Every structure is written in C-alpha cells, then in structure tokens.
Amino acid sequence: MTATPRSDVDVLIVGAGISGLGAAYYLQTQRPGTSFAILEARAATGGTWDLFRYPGIRSDSDLHTFGYEFKPWRDEDAIASADKILAYLREMVAENGIERHIRFHHKVLGAAWCSADARWTVDIELVDTGERSQITANWIFCAGGYYRYDQGYTPHFEGRDRFAGTIVHPQHWPEDLDYAGKKVVVIGSGATAVTLVPAMASSAARVTMLQRSPTYVMPVPGKDRFAIAAQKLLGADRGYALARRKNMLKQQLVYQFCQRHPELARRLIRRANAKVLPAGYPVDEHFKPGYNPWDQRLCAVPDADLFAAISDGSAEVVTDRIVTFTETGILLESGRELDADIIVTATGLNIQLLGGMTLTVDGEAVDPAERIVYKGMMLSGVPNFAYAFGYTNSSWTLKVGLLCEHFCRLLDHMDEHGYDVACAQVDRAGMATRPFLDFGAGYVQRAVDQLPKQGDSAPWQTSTGYHDDVKLLRHDSVIDPHLSFRRASRQPVGIG
C-alpha cells in the first residue's frame, strides 16, 4: 500500500448525496473563491437514492419541499420514485459543473485537527485499491447521512438458518431477485415496508406485510394539483416557490396539530384508513399504533397504493410476533404459519453519525456522545467542523438548505475579520441536556447513547420548525456569544 501526496482545500465536503451536493452548490454560488472538494466513498452521486434498489423505492416527502429551493421540481409526481430523484440531482450537478469537484471511491477514515495550523488533516482510503492518501482542509462539512451504507439493521430471528428460501434486506437488494409468482413475506411496518408491499404485489403470488405492531399510515395524493396549476400559471420558478411555501406550511400545521391534539389526529387518520379499506376490515388491529401521531414518522402512501393492494387481495397485513423461522416460512405466536419463498427483512437502519469517521482535536479523540450540538450544525469544542442533519418531522432538505446558507455566511464573517478558526463553546457547567433526536423510532432509540446531546436553550437546542430556523439560520447574525473566533496560533478573540 502506497501513500499519495496530500492536497489542500478550504472546505472538504464528505458525501455526494442530496446534502453534500447542495452544500457544493451554495459554496460555489455564494463563495466563488472558496476551494472545495467532495469525497464520496461510492462510485456515483445520489447517496440514498443511488444506494437503495428495492422495488418501488420513492420519497416519503413531497419533492416541492424535499427538492432544492434553488431548483424547481418540474415532474408531476409530488411523491417521486428514486430514478426521478436521481435524475433531478444529477441534472443539478451537470447544470452547475459540480462533478469536477467530486472524488469518487474516496472513503474518509478519520480527521485530525491541529490548532497551530488551523487545519484538518483527513485520512482517506481509495475503496477500489486500498491506497491511502491525505487531504488538508480549513473546514469539514460532513454530509455523510445518518446511517451505515454497508449494513442495514436486522434483529436476531430464531431459526433463520433453517429457512430454505431467500432472505434479503432492502438495503442490499439483489439485482437478479425474481419474485414473480412467489410467496413473499415483508417483515416491518415502516416506510420501506409500505413501499415494498404494493410494488411487489403486482407480480408476486402473494405479499404479506408482517408487523409486530402497527404504524401510522396516511394515504396522500401522488400528484400535487396545486403545484401543477401554480407552475402552469406562474411559470416554473414562481409556481414552484409558491407550492413549496404551501407544502411547508401544510407540513408544519399537520405536525403541530398532531402534537397538540393527538386523540383527534388518531381519529382522523383512522377515518382516512377505513375509507380506503374494504368494509369490515380490522383497521384497529393493523393500523392503530400504541403511540401518538408523529411520536414516530408518519408513513405517506401515495394514491393509497398499499390499501389498494390489500383491497384487491394481492397483499395482506398480519400483526403478530415471530416465534421462529421454519424451513418453509415463519411460525407466529398465534400459531399461524406464513408460507414464504422470499422473506424481506425491512427492519430498519443502523445509525452511523459523521459517516463513520473518527475525529481528534489536538491529539484528543472526540466522542460525539459527549458533545452538545450548536445551532443543529456544529459540535461543542470541535473547531471548523459542520455537519448536515435535516428534519425528521418534515422534508429533510428544508433544514439542510438553511444550514448551508448559514455556513456560507459564517465563512464570509471569518474572511471579513481575518479569522481562521470558529469553535462553539458551552459557557456554563452542568447544562441540562436531552437526546439530540427526541424521536421514538427504533433506529434512533438503538443509537441514542452514541449521539450528541442538545441543551436546554438556544443555540444549543435543535429546532424542528422551519420558520424558527429561518430566523436563527437565515436572518440572525452569525456572531454569537457561544461561538469564539481566532486567528491561527493566537488566543480567542471573542465574538467580533
């Protein structure tokens, strides 16, 4: 194994998914003199939308808010398939010449900060050859997502080795998997499961969604008629902006309504489910969760396709617990056995913060779980390091766009005053903290002890409201008493 000479940039972006590509656009347009590179471990842009290949993969947010603010979504499908999202992302990359900044097959292993030099030295492995190299940067912008790309989550299933058929996790979908005419059991009840079931039901002999407990599932229109009309009447840019504002408001109103009136929200969701299911269907058994709406993410089902598959008999939902896999299927606690040729474990993700990279600051290892988040984009005591983490209660990209804007304004301020270093510092001992993600989803709860914390007041709280973040990240000054600035090899110079 050989090492190549190191290179240097102002900003190093980790990840070429929707967040990293967006960060590149903002840097390129708002700070044209800033040098940057994007490191991507895989061979293509797109992140999640290129990685997942299971049948029917689609967004669970409308693309008028999940898409970029600066690039209108022109397709009529508001809830869009992965191929359409990829085409949109790659069109943006081509339009803005961003690909020349991307280095594919470059996996970031770790980064070491040196205060004397005010730079990060980043260790990289070339995935296809194993060769190691380094790059130095004044800033790192981590856009590596929040889950492990190489390994999905699968719990222990008793008797798994006995099953004679095929077992597959959606994150690792085989290109040659033939499920036509086969009996399929999909284990899970989240967004992936409710996507897979109707997509596979059209050609499989039978598809069963096996869930331990129900999830809130809401039928929504696949097309946004308001957005289509707005773009026809006002043009692509203005129509898109109007539809985006309408959908942002709708998302916030739905979330706030569910938080303030959970029992009424339960009844309304149940009524919507019952309306698209056959008369007499046991709605409460299969679609009545034990938690309140939006304590976990609500699954959107475009054009009620899951309910349509249930109604025509090509799919069914079973709510039960697994005792063991058998040679021919799954034995349940009720005594029922589900026959299967293929079992799909749509059982979730493994959270992996910061793309799995390690960090050190002047030789001391950084444990993210011991840090507090600053403005939802930096970690306390970690200089010149920003990360992208979107909303869990509305479209992910809404927050990422605001973070990128704020990041560029922060760099502008540092340039204007000749600063090399910015570091968020907690100003009081014993600050009350709570989990970074106050969210009941299983993938979050499994990793809560690995994640940073949020504090009890701004700017240490992680906002979940777009309009609050517009004020904090777009309109408020980057100057903050909790953010210190300095020049290389000099003492902090306060907030100026």
TrEMBL record:
<dbReference type="Pfam" id="PF00743">
    <property type="entry name" value="FMO-like"/>
</dbReference>
<keyword id="KW-0560">Oxidoreductase</keyword>
<dbReference type="InterPro" id="IPR020946">
    <property type="entry name" value="Flavin_mOase-like"/>
</dbReference>
<comment type="similarity">
    <text>Belongs to the FAD-binding monooxygenase family.</text>
</comment>
<dbReference type="GO" id="GO:0050661">
    <property type="term" value="F:NADP binding"/>
</dbReference>
<keyword id="KW-0274">FAD</keyword>
<dbReference type="InterPro" id="IPR036188">
    <property type="entry name" value="FAD/NAD-bd_sf"/>
</dbReference>
<dbReference type="GO" id="GO:0004499">
    <property type="term" value="F:N,N-dimethylaniline monooxygenase activity"/>
</dbReference>
<keyword id="KW-0285">Flavoprotein</keyword>
<dbReference type="GO" id="GO:0050660">
    <property type="term" value="F:flavin adenine dinucleotide binding"/>
</dbReference>
<protein>
    <submittedName>
        <fullName>Monooxygenase-like flavoprotein</fullName>
        <ecNumber>1.-.-.-</ecNumber>
        <ecNumber>1.14.13.-</ecNumber>
    </submittedName>
</protein>
<dbReference type="InterPro" id="IPR051820">
    <property type="entry name" value="FAD-binding_MO"/>
</dbReference>
<keyword id="KW-0503">Monooxygenase</keyword>
<keyword id="KW-0521">NADP</keyword>
<dbReference type="Pfam" id="PF13450">
    <property type="entry name" value="NAD_binding_8"/>
</dbReference>
